[in-house]
Amino acid sequence: MEALGLKMVGGLKPAVERPSPWPWPWPNRSRRTLGILACSSSSSSNPNSNPNSSSSSSEKAKDSPLSSSSFLSRSQTYALLKQQMAVAAKLEDYKEAARIRDSLKSFEAEEPVLRLRGLMKKAVEEEKFEDAARYRDQLKILAPHAFLRCSSDAVTLGIRVQVRSVYIEGRSLPSKGQYFFAYRIRITNNSQRPVQLLRRHWIITDGNGKTENIWGVGVIGEQPVILPKTGFEYSSACPLSTPNGRMEGDFEMKHIDKVGSPTFNVSIAPFSLSIIGDDDANGLI
C-alpha cells in the first residue's frame, strides 16, 4: 500500500451541498463533509509494523481453482475488463464496448464467488440449509473476504461509528495493480457528554494478507468536537495493490466537559474493500 501524499480538499461546504455516492439522511448533521484524503501517509505509518503478518499458502493451494490467490487473479481480470469497457465507451468505440460488455456478462455468470453467493442465498430462501452450508464452506476457501461486508457499524460508550466503502473505478489502474477505494464515515454522539476526536488508527490488510498500521492526528485535518445528539461525517480513501482487502481501527477520543478526563478508544468495526461489493451495495447502512 503506497503512500499517496495527496490531499484533495476543496473549499469548506455544508455536507448537504456536496454530492455523495452515499445518500445518507442525517437530520442532526452539525459538521461538514470534506474532500477525499489518502488514508495512508509515510509520516503516519508505523515503522515497526510487520509487512508480512500472514503466512503464505502452500504452492498446491496457490494453484487450486478454489484458492484465495486464484480469486485475486479473477478479480483483477474483472476489474481490467470493466476499465477497458469504460475506455472503449469514452473513445466511442461502441462495437468494442459491446464486445467487452458481453464478456463481462459471461464472466459474471461464471465467476465462482458471485455464483456461490447466489446459490447460497437461494438455498437459504428455500430452507435447504445443508446446501447453504456447503456453499458457505466453499466460499470461505475461495474468498475469505466474501463474508465481510463493505460496511460496518459499531458503538462504544454511546459513540456510533458507521462506515461504507466503494470501489472507485475511474481512479484505479488494474493493469498496474492499483485499486482505489473510497469510504465514508459517520460518527454519531448518542451519549450525554460532548467528545473530541483526537487521533485515528487504521489497520489495513490487502488481499495477500499484508497488514499496515496507520496512525494520525484527527481526521482530514480536523479534531472535531461532537456534541450530544449530533454527529460528524467525512469521506476519505485508501489505495490497495490488490482488488480486495479490509480495514478496521479506532478513534481516540476524550470527554471535554470535565478537565482531566481520560481518553478512550472508539472502535471502527472491520469492513471490506472489494471491487465486487455487496449483494445490496446500493442499500444504506
UniProtKB/TrEMBL annotation:
Biased composition (Low complexity): 40-69
UVR domain mapped to chain residues: 75-110, 110-145
Region of interest: Disordered: 37-69
Database matches in Pfam families: DUF525, UVR
ApaG domain segment(s): 153-280
PANTHER family: OS05G0170800 PROTEIN
UniProt-recorded name of the protein: Protein ApaG
Species for this entry: Asparagus officinalis
